Structures are given as C-alpha cells and as structure tokens.
C-alpha cells in the first residue's frame, strides 16, 4: 500500500514532473516543463529509485508509463513507430515525409525543429548547422531518424538521465535483460480487469464458510458493483486496485503469498475493516443484504490512505 500511495503523489501530473502522453492516452511521460522546479533533477533521481524498488519488491504503482518510457528503462532504441501512441499527429507527419518525395512537394525542410516550452518557442538544430541543411530524398532517412530521436528527448534529456541514474542504482540493466517493455508494464501495474470467478476461487474464510449468508451477500454486492467500485473494494482490502499477472492466486501480503480472506469480526453496527498487510476483510455479521451493502459501500468510499492495520 505504501508504494501505491506514494506513487499516487509523486506521479501526479499536478506536480509537473510527469504529464499524460496526450488527450486520449493517460499513460505518463516526463514533463519538459518540470525544469521550473529548481530541485526537479533530485526528484527524478528519487522517482527512478522508487520505481526500481517497486519492481524489485514486486509492488504495484498507481499509474503506468508510456511504452517508449519502459523501453528507456530497458535501454532499448526508440523507433519512429514508438511515436504513434504518444504523439499521433507528429508521427503521421513523419510517416508522410517518409512515404512522399520531399523534393517534389517543395516543403523546404531543414535539419532543424521548433519547440514551445512554457510559451517560448526555441529552435533546435538536429545536427551541427542543421538549419542550413536542406532535407532531400538522399538524406531523408537521416532526417527522420534525428527527428524521431529529438522528439523523444526534447526538453527532458537531463530529467531522463537523472531518472535512469536513480533507477539503475537499484536495478542494474543485467537484472532486466530478460524482460520486454510490456512485461515491465505488467510487473509495475498488474492487471486492471477483475475476474470475479478467480476472486471467489482464491478466497479463504475465517469463522464464516462460503455458504454463510453474509459471504453470499458480499459476493452479490461485489458482482453488482461497477468496475470502479469493485477496484475500490479490492484496494480497501489489499492496498492496491491492481492484480498480479497470475491473478488472485498470486496475491501477496507482507510476508509473502497471502490469499484474500473474509473473517467474521465485530457487531452488526460496525463498519467493515481491512488489514492490507494480510489481504483480510473483517466483515461483521450483518442481518440483511441491504445493511451489508450500505456499510460496505460507506467503508470503501469514505476510506482514504492507509487502512487501519
């Protein structure tokens, strides 16, 4: 839960360290405007270490990064195709250049690019003297390669370097050599879809049985919840709304593998309580489905931060 709660803060775009990739892609990437904070490089080094610790301890974080960012963690070369998910308009413009004769179109392209940072437009040469070098069919591939590299690095070279330095202090590259970027995403973010059958199969009970009326009511409520409320229920009990790649059978507690547990505790006037270290829900012996639904809904919607134990 600590990893999940801290990541919710440090990765919050409101703090200007990270931003969403675009209006339709809510994966995170480094924000070029983060330099407004004089200590931003120290923060990025910390975040790099923090993300590596989450990977090492197999803990989930609140939000995921773009695929190109995961490739950076793995020191993989970024390609033109990688641009498609983070900047489709820019990607399409480069694909057009690739597929058409730039000399016939009269575009007058040079090896330079403009970039707007905090309202200030800056010109950048893609190579020495680039603003004086025209793009031709002969040198077009070099232009596309340099432009792609620049788009991924523009304004965030130092931030990326600090992040990776912190990351590699905890996890040397050799540790990650057998993973690809999608596996890295799953390891950090888990699965967001909740399989109710899998959940029920991998739940244990204390002082209840699977046929106890309160247990039957609990599963009825969980099945009736929409995805968001179901995720809140999971987070309330386990500390995270994400699941391991193997589903509920691989759910972890503070001392290793720990199945989801529902225990009969308290009086019907009590609210449900959670023990996130043990993935345990204390469910009082409510007298009706309506009473259970009311108390459970209040508990998961009004609880924020660390659980009681």
Automatic annotation (TrEMBL):
Keyword field: Transferase, Ubl conjugation pathway
List the catalysed reactions.
S-ubiquitinyl-[E2 ubiquitin-conjugating enzyme]-L-cysteine + [acceptor protein]-L-lysine = [E2 ubiquitin-conjugating enzyme]-L-cysteine + N(6)-ubiquitinyl-[acceptor protein]-L-lysine
Instruction: Give yes or no: UniProt keyword Transferase.
Output: yes
Pathway given for this chain reads: Protein modification; protein ubiquitination
**Where's the HECT domain?**
1-309
Q: Where is the active site?
A: 277 (glycyl thioester intermediate)
Q: Which Gene3D superfamilies does the record match to this protein?
A: Hect, E3 ligase catalytic domain, Hect, E3 ligase catalytic domains
**What is the E.C. number?**
2.3.2.26
Matching entries from InterPro entries are given as: E3_ubiq-protein_ligase, HECT_dom, Hect_E3_ubiquitin_ligase
Q: Does the keyword Transferase apply?
A: yes
Q: Which PANTHER family is this protein grouped with?
A: E3 UBIQUITIN-PROTEIN LIGASE SU(DX) (PTHR11254:SF429), HECT DOMAIN UBIQUITIN-PROTEIN LIGASE (PTHR11254)
Q: What is the recorded name of this protein?
A: HECT-type E3 ubiquitin transferase
Q: Which organism is it from?
A: Saccoglossus kowalevskii
Give the source lineage, highest ranks first: Eukaryota, Metazoa, Hemichordata, Enteropneusta, Harrimaniidae
The gene for this chain is LOC100377676
